[in-house]
């Protein structure tokens, strides 16, 4: 199991789902079902339009609020973009950056991801940086090369002190929304590689402290095996986070209940 020095995080990415009432109701159900003695972190990421509604529900709780994206500029003529300070005003403490859907559908490059990570850090938002390979890249034995390139790009020009604020989520693109999940061994191998790359960039103390989440069809019936891996420190959950009972089961994975933290 993961080092006790790294606090596990379970994040729910609601993507482009739910209206404000539905989002508030889901957040309320998750808050109500949360073990009051839970030691790890829980994060909810609704759409921009639902941030205020969810913020109101989470007030006074231990649950963190995240955006699903962030602009790299603070203000200006950037139609459709939302700045770091606007997200903080809406109650956000975290921002998901570089999700595979942003990279693939909206053509975000490593350079864009890097600018967003820097902007989030500057604004004291915690970046949840997503990296991962496609099925074609995995089948052509390019997984490690892709991860190295994405990490080098995302952390370019970022100091170790700044990087210490970042949470990294490994999400194999072929496992997102497909029902396919990397085996625990596949996920662990990728996480070990990511940790080694971070050691190469910032040194061993940083690598041992950085939190690595797994994302890719995480479900109530596979979370225990995934979270039992020594280098998996949490999960970035998509569809399963839209069902309060299922997501609560993911949050309360057995590794924690058995005294992992």
Integer-rounded radius of gyration: 17 Å
Gross morphology is globular
Spans of 5+ residues with little confidence (pLDDT < 50)? none
Topology-level CATH name: TIM Barrel
Number of strands: 8
What is the total number of structural domains?
Answer: 1
Q: What is the CATH domain class?
A: Alpha Beta
**Proportion of helical residues:** 40-55%
CATH level-two architecture: Alpha-Beta Barrel
| Class computed from helices, strands and strand pairing | alpha/beta
Question: What order do the helices and strands follow?
Answer: EHEHEHEHHEHHHEHHEHEHH
**What's the pLDDT, averaged over the residues?**
93
Short description:
With 261 residues, the chain is α/β, with parallel strands linked by helices. It has helices at 20-33, 51-58, 84-89, 100-104, 110-122, 135-139, 143-154, 160-163, 184-202, 204-209, 223-227, 244-251, 254-257, and strands at residues 9-13, 41-45, 64-67, 94-97, 126-131, 167-170, 212-215, 234-237.
Describe this structure in words.
By secondary structure, the protein is an alpha/beta fold. It has one domain: TIM Barrel. It is built from 13 helices and 8 strands. It has helices at 20-33, 51-58, 84-89, 100-104, 110-122, 135-139, 143-154, 160-163, 184-202, 204-209, 223-227, 244-251, 254-257; strands at 9-13, 41-45, 64-67, 94-97, 126-131, 167-170, 212-215, 234-237. It has an 8-stranded parallel β-barrel, surrounded by 5 helices. Strand 1, helix 1 and strand 2 (41-45) form a beta-alpha-beta unit. The protein is globular, with a radius of gyration of 17 Å.
């Amino acid at each position: 199991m993961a080092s006790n020095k790294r606090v596990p995080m379970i994040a729910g990415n609601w993507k482009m789902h739910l209206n404000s009432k539905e989002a508030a109701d889901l957040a309320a159900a998750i808050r109500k079902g949360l073990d009051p003695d839970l030691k790890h972190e829980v994060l909810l990421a609704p759409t921009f339009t639902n941030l205020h509604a969810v913020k109101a529900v989470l007030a006074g709780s231990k649950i963190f609020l995240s955006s699903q994206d962030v602009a790299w500029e603070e203000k200006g003529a950037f139609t459709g973009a939302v700045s770091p300070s606007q997200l903080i005003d809406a109650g956000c403490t975290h921002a998901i950056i570089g999700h595979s859907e942003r990279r693939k559908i909206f053509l975000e490059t490593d350079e864009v991801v890097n600018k967003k990570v820097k902007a989030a850090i500057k604004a004291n938002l915690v970046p949840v940086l997503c990296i991962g390979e496609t099925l074609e890249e995995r089948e052509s034995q390019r997984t490690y090369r892709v991860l190295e390139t994405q990490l080098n790009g995302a952390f370019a020009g970022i100091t170790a002190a700044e990087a210490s604020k970042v949470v990294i989520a490994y999400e194999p693109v072929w496992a997102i929304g497909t029902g396919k999940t990397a085996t625990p061994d596949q996920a662990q191998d990728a996480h070990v590689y990511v940790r080694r790359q971070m050691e190469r960039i910032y040194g061993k103390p940083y690598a041992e402290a950085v939190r690595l989440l797994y994302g890719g069809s995480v479900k109530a019936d596979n979370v225990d095996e995934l979270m039992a891996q020594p280098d998996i420190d949490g999960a970035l959950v998509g569809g399963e986070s839209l069902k309060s009972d299922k997501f609560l089961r993911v949050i309360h994975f057995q590794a924690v209940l058995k005294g992992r933290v």
